[in-house]
Amino acid sequence: MIPIENYLVLSATLFSIGLMIVVIKRNAIAVLLGLELMLNAANINLVAFNLAHPERLDGQMFAVFVIIVAACEAAVGLAIILQAYRVFHTAVPDSISTLKES
Amino acid sequence: MIYAFYIFAFIAIASAAGILFARRLFHAALMLLVCFLGVAGIYAVSFAEWVAVTQILVYAGGVVVIIIFGIMLTARITGRPTAVANSRWFSGTLLGLGAMGFLITLFVRGSFGNGVMPASDAKFTMVNRFGIELMTDYMLPFEGAGLLLLITLVGAAVIAATRNKNSIS
Amino acid sequence: MKIEAGLPEKLEWIQHSLGFFGPELILFAGIVVVLCVGIIIPSLRAGSGSSTPLVIGLIASLFACAVSLAGWNQETEGLHLFGGMIVNDRFSSWLKIICDVAGALTFLLSLKDQRKHVSEYVALVLSVLLGAHMLSMSVGMIMIFLSLEMISITSYVLAGYSFKQEGAEGSLKYFLFGTASAAVMLYGLSLLYGITGSSIISSQEFVEGLLAHQSLLLLVAGLLALAGFLFKMAALPMHLWAPDVYQAAPMPVVALFSVVPKLAGLAVLTRFVLAATAYGQSLIDWKAIVGLIAIVTITAGNVAALRQSNAKRMMAYSSIAQSGFLLIGVAALTEQSIQFMMFYAAVYFVANYLVFGYLQYFESKGVLTIPDFAGTGRTDPVAHGFLLAGLISLTGIPPTAGFTAKLLIFTGLYDAYRITDDSFLLWIFVPGLLNTVIALFYYLRIPYFAFLRDGDGVPAKYLTWTNFLGLVLVLTLLGLFFRPDGLMGWINKITFVL
């Protein structure tokens, strides 16, 4: 049997790498890659915890729905990123700033 | 089985780190594909074969393909491969490593107590059990996900439809 | 194939549940119908404007509201539907009614500026409403995540519905921030599932699991989950998206964003905090955490609003501050304080729509920033009179319902202090009152410029659609000040059990 701690360490590592990508990368698509990693980390937790409660399929079901939602998010997100790219000719959110504090 | 777990975990973590260090956006997307496959392997050794299949079909087959489309379309606008610039290296690394250290310490110090250990009789959940539950206990989220997909389609189409109109100045 | 034991009972439960799912089914039907209409009518297909879809949306949201109202007397206590993932009680019915009326008003406001892709617009607004309906009823983590994302994903698209440069930027920032907070929330929820072994936050198992694991890990998991709910409410520290999105989005959409996702987020946050405190037995003081968030949110929102010159941005910070006031009801966490919070929510909704209706009216005349309002008060006194009523209601000055609502919120807080003797409630009390004074300065800047500064002014017409709508809303605000007992009588029937 695989101890639950193994899963948790793996998910914590993936979550933190995802967080680092979100903070460090400047391109919006690269940020999206990091966000997908964070969602995957949560899914690993869900599947692992489901092992401890096999009488219901909550964790696995939750993971499947997260995958579906992540696909929706990626589709809408890429449409938005491409539109911003056409308008501003950059996919770097930091350098887009027509909306300002005034 | 534990060795398989370690191999898949190594693949997932190594390719995730690869995304962090990749110079080209396209390479990062391919690394993400490898990472998704590694995570699918983790599901497969954790008695969640249906989640593993969904992961491969939707994530590896769908999301990564969309992302690669996105990368190629943005590269077409500028006409050169997209390199990713980095910023905030210091704060990002600090935050990430801090979060990693903090979470791992919390997990390893056994705050979960005795309750959460894999049950020894865990077995592969048959796909038909999954299907029955999807149509009974989980019917509402199932239908909700269907609606969400429809709305996503509409939303993405609306954004994409403004492409060649001169509305965007 | 062997039929699983208990299967017929489950199917019967689903069938039974559908009977209490009327408003949601109506909204769903509305989405389908409006999309079909958009395909069938050729002028809509070409992308030109027509108000037919808006009327369909209006009918669907009002109909859903009527069905919620009709079910009001049946729901004496919470009904668990669809495998216990959703609970239909008066608390959620009340929020659903407010959201539906807000949706109807959004369609009315949208009638004036015909946009492109009208039928898609209506479908997206209706699915925000549907997501809010489901989120306000959700107790299962799967439904919480799914309905929260249903609101988010549609909101990302709606934020860019001006189809201008700012719209693209607003959408992009909203999307990145929203997805990040959803991922963080999901990680928190997954840990909570692991700690308790149950994905339904109202279940006995969940609460017992929390009590058995009072640890730092639980605190971290709970805070991560809260981040997602606070994002929907635009409360600190997840408020950064609000000013940019409010400035970029078209006015009816901004009005929608300022009410519907906020109240849905408030509902799920209330349920979560109630479960996390575990009937007051929890060692972690979640009420103090929410109280701290509330007070920081109010202060930061108000202070930032003082510096804004764009009217929409100012209203964004105002809505941040108002979510802080709503959170005070959760921090007190007595049945009475939650009822007062519901009253506050209703009044906030009316006043906010009044203000956004007039901001839209002035925006169409080219008045965007606060200095632009100079002199407009003399040429258009009616519009400014109504706008003033909305603004002083948001500040909380008599004779408007805003005063009553603030008074009730603080009464609820003080009563909770006397019952529980928690000193932190007093720490919320004083800065909360002081902030009402700060709010005075920025809310009254628009009337100040309009009436007391010289400027060009704008030509005015009195018999306008906006003025009619404004009159109705102003009368509601005044009526709720002089006779709040009618509405309170309804709200007193909201019994809140987990």
Describe the structure.
The complex is a heterotrimer of chains A (102), B (169) and C (498). Chain A has 102 residues and is mainly alpha-helical. Chain A has helices at residues 4-24, 28-52, 58-88. The longest helix of chain A is centred in the last third of the chain and has 31 residues, at 58-88. In chain B, helix 1 packs antiparallel against helix 2 and helix 2 (25-45) packs antiparallel against helix 3 (49-78). Chain B folds into 2 domains: 1-85, Up-down Bundle (Four Helix Bundle (Hemerythrin (Met), subunit A)); 126-164. Chain B contains 6 helices and no strands. Chain B is mostly helical and 169 residues long. Chain B is globular. Chain B has helices at 2-21, 25-45, 49-78, 89-108, 127-135, 139-161. Mean pLDDT of chain B is 82; it is low at 164-169. Chain C contains 22 helices and 2 strands. Chain C has a two-stranded antiparallel ribbon with strand order 1-2. The two termini of chain C are 39 Å apart. Chain A binds chain C through residues 15, 18, 22, 28, 31-32, 35, 38-39, 41-43, 45-46, 48-49, 52-53, 58-59, 61-62, 65-66, 69, 72-73, 76-77, 80-81, 83-84, 86-88, 93, 96-99, 101-102, and chain C through 141-142, 145-146, 149, 153, 156-157, 160, 165-166, 168-173, 175-176, 179-180, 182-184, 186-187, 189-191, 193-194, 197-199, 243-244, 247-248, 307-310, 313, 369.
Radius of gyration of chain B: 21 Å
Give the helix/strand class of chain C. mainly alpha
Number of helices of chain B: 6
Q: Which runs of chain C of at least 5 residues are low in confidence (pLDDT < 50)?
A: none
How widely separated are the two ends of chain C?
39 Å
Work out the radius of gyration of chain C: 22 Å
**The CATH C-level class name of the largest domain in chain B:** Mainly Alpha
User: How do the strands line up in the largest sheet of chain C?
Assistant: 1-2
For the largest beta-sheet of chain C, the strand count, sense and barrel status come to: 2 strands, antiparallel
Number of E strands of chain B: 0
Strand count, sense and barrel status of the largest sheet of chain B are:
none
Task: Characterize the overall form of chain C.
Answer: globular
End-to-end C-alpha gap of chain B: 58 Å
- What number of structural domains do the residues of chain B give? 2
| Strand composition percent of chain B | under 5%
Helix/strand structural class of chain B: mainly alpha
**Mean of all residue-level pLDDT scores of chain B:** 82
Q: Which stretches of chain B are poorly predicted, pLDDT < 50 over at least 5 residues?
A: 164-169
Oligomer: heterotrimer
The ordered string of helix (H) and strand (E) elements of chain C is HHHHEEHHHHHHHHHHHHHHHHHH
